[in-house]
Amino acid sequence: MRREESRHDFAFIAGVIVGAVSGALVTLALTPLSGAQTREKVMERVGDLEPMKERATGLATSGKHLVETGRGIAVDLVAKSPLPFGEHVAAEADVAAHGTMTTHDGMTLAEDTTERNELAAATTTRAATTRPTDDQG
User: Fold this and answer.
1) pLDDT tens-digit series, residues 65-78
2) With contact defined as beta carbons under 8 Å apart, do 93 and 74 qualify?
3) Nearest residue to 72 (alpha-carbon basis) of 48, 100, 51, 96
4) Is the pTM above the cut of 0.70?
5) From residue 8, how far is each of 1, 14, 64, 113 by CA, in Å?
6) Taking the chain, what is the end-to-end CA distance rounded to the nearest angstrom?
7) In the 8-state DSSP scheme, what is residue 104?
8) Which of 8, 67, 115, 135 is 20 to 30 A from 124, comparing alpha carbons?
9) Is the CB of residue 113 less than 8 Å from the CB of residue 100?
């Protein structure tokens, strides 16, 4: 059994070597240009792409400007919306645009969260101290 595996391994390796050599020979025989000519042709094609690159860069810049303008208009419209989700969507857009979120009263989200946590803690403490005990009832 081991001998058959060895023969298969040898056949595979021999096939890889013969295939690589044959491919190299066929490539050399069928290549229409020399290496220097091929490099020159590629450089010409790259030079032809330069105007396209400049146009694509200009389009990307103007597209970015249009997106920013549209985002600003959308944020303004959502903020003015009478619907209850208007403030939340505007706040999320504010986070996306500026990295911070402000609440309706101008506090950042972190300040608002801290204030809510302090209020909840005070309410819990007050409720625990004013709760009637079993011997009072």
Assistant:
1) 998 898 888 888 87
2) yes
3) 96
4) no
5) 11, 10, 60, 70
6) 91
7) T
8) 135
9) no
Q: Where are the alpha helices (DSSP H) in 1-137?
A: 2-30, 35-80, 86-98, 109-130
Identity of the amino acid at 110 = A
Instruction: Name the 3-class secondary structure at 22.
Output: helix
Q: Distances from the Cα of 59 to the Cαs of 47, 68, 72, 73, 124, in angstroms?
A: 20, 14, 20, 21, 58
Q: What would the pLDDT profile of 95-135 be if each residue is shown by its tens digit? A: 666 656 555 566 665 666 677 777 777 777 666 666 555 55
Q: For residue 41, what are the contacts with CB-CB under 8 A and spacing of at least 6?
A: 33
Helix (H) or strand (E) holding 15: helix 2-30
Per the CB < 8 A criterion, the answer to whether 100 and 109 are in contact is yes
How far apart are the C-alpha atoms of 75 and 91, rounded to whole Å?
9
R_g of the chain computed on alpha carbons = 36
Structure tokens that stand for 121 in this block: 């803690």
Distance CA 94, CA 77 (A): 13
Confidence of residue 20 (pLDDT cuts 50, 70, 90): very high
